[in-house]
Amino acid sequence: MNYLEKRGPQYMAKEKVTRKELLKGTDEFMSIAGRVAVYLKEHSRQLQYAGLGVLVLVVLYLAINTFLGYINKKGQKAYNAAYYALMEDKGDEGPDYMKASALFETAKKEYKYAKVSDLIPAQLAYGKYRQKEYDQAIDLYEEFLEGLPDQSPYRSLTKLALGTCHEEKGDAQGAIIFYESVSVGPDAYLRDIALFSLARVYRLSGQPQKAEGVLRQFIEDYQQSPYLPLAEALLHDLSSI
After folding, report:
1. For the whole model, what pTM was predicted?
2. C-alpha to C-alpha distance for 115 and 32, rounded to whole angstroms
3. Cα–Cα distance between 54 and 222 in angstroms, integer?
4. 132 FRET partner, CA 20 to 30 A, in 67, 98, 102, 148?
5. How far is CA 145 from CA 20, 134, 149, 160, 229, in A?
6. pLDDT in tens, 199-220
7. Mind listing the pLDDT tens digit for each residue in 25-76?
């Protein structure tokens, strides 16, 4: 006795499909198939155009991706060559910043669509900073900063770099603006560097009270900082004035 027979004759009767129902299902399928065939015949020209359009889009998509892949590869190679020149140690002479800057400029011009091109302004800015071309470095760092997302971890680092450029060119107020911006930001690691730099600029620009306040805040918040002994020494000097 099979499974259905065990369930009883009434259940088996419910499961039985009549010839009429089978024919009805076949007719419905044939009707749908027929309507589809008629539609395809009536719209064959449009479908051919649509198929051609899809094919063109696929070809364009593959071509663009192939091109971008090639550009990204070449751009990364050019970026790497410039970066190695920027970091190359030549003993007492140090890296050839002019050569590195020229290589970065070439990479920026020839491979502006490569992904790595977004990083070039920051590297160019560093090269200009090392060549003491602070105004150009500031422009490049600001260009880089403008292109960063609001939550990018590079924002605080770039602001510190901008503060350093302003400090080096003798613009204490410009440096203070950027150091203060980082000191009230969410990046705890960079905040200690910003506070210490801010205290230094206040001290050097003849604002000892502000420098003292920042140093006290630094000492309170960063007991494990490597800058702590120096901060305490600076605070002691300011307090004895």
Report:
1. 0.68
2. 51
3. 61
4. 148
5. 76, 16, 9, 11, 33
6. 999 999 999 999 999 999 999 9
7. 445 444 555 565 555 556 566 555 555 455 445 445 555 667 678 778 888 8
